[in-house]
């Protein structure tokens, strides 16, 4: 490394000495103390990785002075480690294994395809809440998970022995972000050469930002970008604008971290922070416990920021101590932070690009829905806003349904009731967002206790599930004697993983499901997660609301969204007395006392003592051996050799113009990666379901799209197949359908794409604002590529998906300001030519515009290849092809 500024020095902590790169060595270039915390982390990263090639001295100088109105400039960021979950991790390992085969084709050494930095994968996305409401639910669901995913888990165990620097946390341990928070994160990383530097990471899940609450700079990227980082490729990024939020005050009694998070989500989505760093400062930071900070950080993707971080302070040290980190590690974190100016000073105001303020005392109880996390609803307005949303839903469907549409139901046990619009059929305490936070989890337990003591019950049509983020939660529930009360309301443990929040909610009671279909009922889910997009939670559920864990309990008792929880009774005591939410809501003092008595360091030590070993079921799995994976594409329905490197040549083919393209889909605003990428259950009548049935897979073993991400044959058939996606070419029809031209035949998107491929016709997608918002689903780009899409033209893109499109060799194009599908009069029936694309092959600078001709219309669009490195990726047909060719040459 160059060390141009002489920043390398020693830091002595106790009896240990570490090598660090001191930020103070650059003070002659500018006032480093005024840099935001997050940019100081990037500055250290540049100093440590300065090599004169990827990182130059001029990059370091630029970063220090970037607050002074300098034009955006690209830098190379090298994370300390990679975090993966199994949905995104399996296809990443499939790609790495396929790259080893492709390396042989290119005449290189296959063992060069190996993670160069630690890559940690936590299996947390595969458990499904099939069984619920009884003491055997966890063991039943864990058994089904092991049975369904045996092939995937064998593949991951192969990867663990085949690749260096690759570790797997087995299933039934916890959610990756909570395992990261409680165990994996270092805050200050120490490598094998005793170099100490900030723990940084990128993760193949958008909610990687949860770790920002522990003052670790990390964010979600697509699996494609993560794979390149694993193989030593720095992440190319523009130095982001940084938004500073000054915190003051304290949360009022009766409010929770969830209420704070939903307010921040609404506030920042309205302000506009897509692609920016968000950082908190000011005196109010001391009043935000670390678990609340993590809850805020977790929601970054929901308002579009790259990170939402708090600087290091005593809260960080207290949390490290609570969760069992060593005294030496805690001492290093404190000494390093104070030496490098990374310690939070409540009176210090860094130089931010934008300033906001939030008084914590203004937070009120809230929920969010029915389809977007940023659509916050004060609890006092829950009923009226639900009715408004229901009426809009009817109008969208072209339905004349009445607000009341009761369908009678009789369960197998003889209980009878009516199902109506707004009835809550799923109440789930789930997801990383809140189940990391003892304050809301304990509050939920206390709400359950008080409710049971007053004789309240959950409604019989509600599927009640409890899926904590780590085993520690059940430990403190048991120690506080709250588990029996939760179970009496039906909230039995169903698994340690991302269940309802990612669509692994499992089936409803069959009688309830049938009634919803018979009456076209707009049923509701309430969950403590971070995502409530259309079609995500359950195919039977049309409206979804985010809420704190204690409110999930309350809504399960109420059984309907057609209630004002703030003023109407939840139910009655056994004596007939009305019970209100205020009657069962615990005080802050009650919650704090339970936490004090029930949570200890030994719980974390016990839970993570053998984090990478797993149970006997995991340890006794038959595992393939060898450095090359033995593919079985004929028999396997889970793991297939990836098609992305077939026929790869040492040099890329020339970039070709896009001529005679057809439109595969015309979409509106806020089309999410959940709409695009295959997710949730696989219907028997879908192209993916038909493919599985033809191979003898019974419908009960279809599993989910997420579990089959290692098989491109399933995934391509599920791309753009979300049951709620609306393609304007086939309005008002919902789902994965399009119109095949020139015949104008309505068919599935998959079948149309295959027909176009047979005819040699390229495809484009047209869309509105915020295209690709949501999770960092690499298959949203991979599936789009395999369908034959060459370009996506949208009004705006979310950060991760735009990057993923480039990473797959798809051209992201943005309408210039004022232009849109509607303003240009585009119908989607036109034939598209995009001229100027071939110039991307020769240009040394980033091209700004290309010209689109659609039928008799012609207009310019902005090329959203944002950095020179991305241009290299596009020329090579994708980021992995670029990396593979470079590895083969080296």
Mean pLDDT: 94
Cα-to-Cα separation, first versus last residue: 19 Å
The proportion of residues in beta strands is: 15-25%
Strand order of the largest sheet: 26-29-30-31-34-33-32
Rg over C-alpha atoms, rounded to the nearest angstrom: 26 Å
Low-confidence stretches: none
Largest sheet: 7 strands, mixed, barrel
- The total tally of domains equals 3
Concise description?
Residues 73-559 form the Aconitase/3-isopropylmalate dehydratase large subunit alpha/beta/alpha domain. The chain has 890 residues and is of the alpha/beta class.
Properties at a glance:
890 residues; Aconitase, domain 3; Aconitase, domain 4; seven-stranded mixed beta barrel; five-stranded parallel β-sheet; 31 helices; AconitaseA/IPMdHydase_ssu_swvl; Aconitate hydratase; iron; Aconitase_4Fe-4S_dom; lyase
Descriptive notes:
- It catalyses: citrate = D-threo-isocitrate.
- Its EC number is 4.2.1.3.
- It comes from Acidithrix ferrooxidans.
- Keywords: 4Fe-4S, Iron, Iron-sulfur, Lyase, Metal-binding, Tricarboxylic acid cycle.
- Pathway: Carbohydrate metabolism; tricarboxylic acid cycle; isocitrate from oxaloacetate: step 2/2.
- With 890 residues, this protein is α/β, with parallel strands linked by helices.
- The strands form eleven sheets. It has a seven-stranded mixed beta barrel. Strands 6-5-4-9-10 form a five-stranded parallel β-sheet, with helices on both faces.
- Helix 1 runs antiparallel to helix 2 and helix 3 crosses helix 7.
- The protein contains 31 helices and 34 strands.
- A hairpin with a 2-residue loop joins strand 33 and strand 34.
- The two termini are 19 Å apart.
- The longest helix has 20 residues.
- The chain folds into three domains: 282 residues, Aconitase, domain 3, CATH 3.30.499.10; 233 residues, 2-Layer Sandwich (Aconitase, domain 3); 191 residues, Aconitase, domain 4 (Alpha-Beta Barrel).
């Amino acid at each position: 490394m160059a060390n141009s500024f002489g920043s390398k020095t020693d830091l002595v902590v106790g009896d240990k000495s570490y090598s660090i790169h001191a930020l103070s060595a650059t003070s002659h270039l500018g006032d480093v103390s005024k840099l935001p915390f997050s940019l100081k982390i990037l500055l250290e990263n540049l100093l440590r990785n300065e090599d004169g090639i990827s990182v130059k001295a001029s990059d370091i100088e630029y970063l220090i002075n970037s607050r002074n109105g300098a034009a955006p400039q690209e830098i190379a960021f090298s994370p300390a480690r990679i975090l993966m979950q199994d949905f995104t991790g399996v296809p990443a390992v499939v790609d790495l294994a396929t790259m080893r085969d492709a390396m042989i084709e290119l005449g290189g050494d296959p063992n060069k395809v190996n993670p160069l930095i630690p890559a940690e994968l936590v299996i947390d996305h595969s458990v499904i809440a099939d069984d619920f409401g009884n003491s055997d639910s966890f063991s039943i669901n864990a058994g089904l998970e092991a049975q369904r995913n045996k092939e995937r888990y064998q593949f991951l165990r192969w990867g663990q022995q085949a690749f260096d620097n690759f570790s797997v946390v087995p299933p039934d341990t916890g959610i990756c972000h909570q395992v990261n928070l409680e165990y994996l994160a270092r805050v200050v990383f120490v490598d094998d050469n005793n170099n100490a530097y900030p723990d940084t990471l990128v993760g193949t899940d958008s909610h990687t930002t949860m770790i920002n609450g522990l003052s670790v700079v990390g964010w979600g990227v697509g699996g494609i970008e993560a794979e390149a980082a694993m193989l030593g490729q720095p992440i190319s990024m523009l130095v982001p604008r940084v938004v500073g939020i000054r915190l003051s005050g304290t949360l009022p009694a009766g409010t929770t971290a969830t209420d704070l998070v939903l307010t921040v989500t609404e506030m920042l989505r309205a302000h506009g922070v897509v692609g920016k760093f968000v950082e908190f400062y000011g005196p109010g930071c001391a009043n935000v416990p670390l678990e609340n900070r993590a809850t805020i950080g977790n929601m970054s993707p929901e308002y579009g920021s790259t990170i939402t971080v708090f600087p290091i302070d005593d809260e960080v040290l207290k949390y490290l101590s609570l969760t069992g980190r060593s005294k030496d590690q805690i001492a290093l974190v404190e000494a390093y932070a104070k030496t490098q100016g990374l310690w939070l000073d409540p009176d210090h105001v860094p130089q931010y690009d934008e300033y906001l303020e939030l008084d914590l005392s203004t937070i009120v109880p809230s929920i969010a829905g029915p389809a977007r996390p940023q659509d916050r609803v004060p609890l006092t307005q829950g009923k009226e806003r639900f009715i408004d949303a229901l009426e809009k839903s009817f109008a969208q469907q072209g339905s004349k349904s009445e607000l009341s549409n009761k369908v009678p139901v009789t369960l197998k046990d003889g209980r009878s009731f009516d199902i109506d619009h707004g009835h809550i059929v799923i109440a789930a305490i789930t997801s990383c967002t809140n189940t990391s936070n003892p304050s809301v989890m304990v509050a939920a337990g206390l709400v359950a206790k008080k409710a049971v003591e007053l004789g309240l019950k959950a409604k019989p049509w509600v599927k009640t599930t409890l899926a904590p983020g780590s085993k520690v939660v059940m430990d403190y529930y048991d120690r506080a004697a709250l588990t029996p009360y939760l179970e009496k309301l039906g909230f039995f443990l169903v698994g340690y993983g991302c269940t309802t929040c990612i669509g692994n909610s499992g089936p409803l009671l069959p009688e309830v499901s049938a009634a919803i279909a018979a009456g076209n009922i707009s049923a509701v889910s309430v969950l403590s997660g971070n995502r409530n997009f259309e079609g995500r939670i359950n195919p039977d559920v049309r409206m979804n609301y985010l809420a704190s864990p204690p409110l999930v309990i309350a809504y399960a008792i109420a059984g309907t969204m057609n209630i004002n929880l703030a003023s109407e009774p939840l139910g009655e005591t056994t004596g007939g007395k009305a019970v209100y939410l205020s009657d069962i809501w615990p005080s802050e003092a009650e919650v704090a006392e339970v936490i004090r008595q029930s949570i200890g360091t030994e719980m974390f030590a016990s839970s993570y003592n053998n984090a990478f070993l797993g149970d006997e079921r995991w340890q006794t799995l038959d595992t393939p051996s060898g450095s090359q994976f033995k593919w079985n594409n004929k028999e396997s329905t889970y793991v297939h050799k990836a098609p992305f490197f077939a026929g790869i040549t040492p040099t890329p083919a020339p970039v070709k113009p896009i001529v005679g393209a057809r439109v595969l889909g015309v979409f509106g605003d806020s089309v999410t990666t959940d709409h695009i990428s295959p997710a949730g259950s696989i219907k028997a009548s879908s192209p993916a379901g038909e493919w599985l049935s033809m191979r003898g897979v019974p419908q009960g073993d279809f599993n989910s799209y997420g579990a089959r991400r290692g098989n491109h044959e399933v995934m391509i058939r599920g791309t753009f197949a979300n049951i709620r996606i609306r393609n304007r070419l086939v309005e008002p029809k919902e789902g994965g359908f399009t119109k095949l031209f020139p015949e104008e035949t309505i068919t599935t998107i998959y079948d149309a794409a295959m027909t176009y491929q047979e005819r040699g016709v390229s495809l484009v997608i047209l869309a509105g604002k915020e295209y690709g918002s949501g999770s960092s689903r690499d298959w949203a780009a991979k599936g789009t590529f395999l369908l034959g899409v060459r370009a996506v033209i949208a009004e705006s893109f979310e950060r991760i998906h735009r990057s993923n499109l480039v990473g797959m060799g798809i051209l992201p194009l943005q309408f210039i300001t004022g232009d849109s599908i509607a303003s240009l009069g585009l119908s989607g029936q036109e034939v598209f030519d995009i001229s100027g694309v071939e110039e991307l092959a020769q240009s040394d600078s980033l091209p700004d515009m290309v010209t689109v001709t659609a039928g008799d219309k012609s207009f310019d669009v902005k090329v959203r290849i944002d950095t020179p490195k991305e241009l290299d990726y596009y020329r090579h047909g994708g980021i992995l092809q670029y990396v593979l060719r470079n590895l083969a040459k080296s």
